[in-house]
Amino acid sequence: MKNVTDRTSNPFGLRPPFDRTPDGERTAVFGYGDANADFHVIGDHPGVHGGKRTGVPFTETESGRGVQDVFRETGFVTGPEEKPELENLYLNYVHMCCLPNGHEPSQREYDDLERYFDAELRAINAHILLPVGETATDHVLQEYTTQRRRFELDMANLHARQLRGRGFMVVPIREPSEWDAGDREKIVSSLEEILASDYRQTKGVATLVG
User: Fold this and answer.
1) Which residue, 12, 137, 126, 16, is CA-closest to 76?
2) Beta-carbon neighbour count of residue 207 at 10 Å?
3) pLDDT by residue (tens digit) across 29-44?
4) pTM for the predicted model, two decimal places
């Protein structure tokens, strides 16, 4: 059963378990968008995909803006870049907490946030998971599919492919800052193909598309 909430930012009221930011800075970039969405985009952390200033995932950075632009073209995103309106789309991060500039999360910090990420993913209960970049893709394939052992973590090869998950379809997205010629068109084409299909039938069944 889908949840019923119209809250756009942090719809489930998550509270980060730690804070490494200086006084006055944003503690975390929470999930944002349509909590009843069929499409769920998953990034790494605010230092990579943005939001430390805006509080909105996939803003501010080159990779963040690149992802938002793809979903704007395919009809999921309207409105201003820094506070977009999302339809049938939810955005969040594997690691929601903000860190001082230039710092990367430790494995322990990723592990500390795993239960929060998993709870939100299952509450959204989307049909299509779209992890962005190597870290998010590795995590999603490991935890939500039986496919991880079948693939080298080669984002150029996995980009825009439609993969079977445990009740989900997983469509990895290469970091936009690393896109080669044609990568943007590949993910736009894959999204358009999914939208034109009966993608809701992938939920809860072992369907391999593509």
Assistant:
1) 126
2) 15
3) 999 999 999 999 999 9
4) 0.91
Number of domains in the chain: 1
Alpha-carbon span 124 to 177, nearest angstrom: 28
Residues 6+ apart with CB under 8 A from 151: 141, 157, 158
Output the pLDDT for position 208.
35
Q: What is the DSSP letter of 37?
A: -
- Domain assignment of residue 55, given as a range: 32-202
How confident is the prediction for the chain on average, in pLDDT? 91
Report residue 207: phi and psi, to 5°.
Answer: -110, 130
- CATH code of 151's domain: 3.40.470.10
209: in domain: no
Question: Do the domain assignments include residue 2?
Answer: no
The answer to the question of residue 11 being in a domain is no
CB 187 within 8 A of CB 128: no
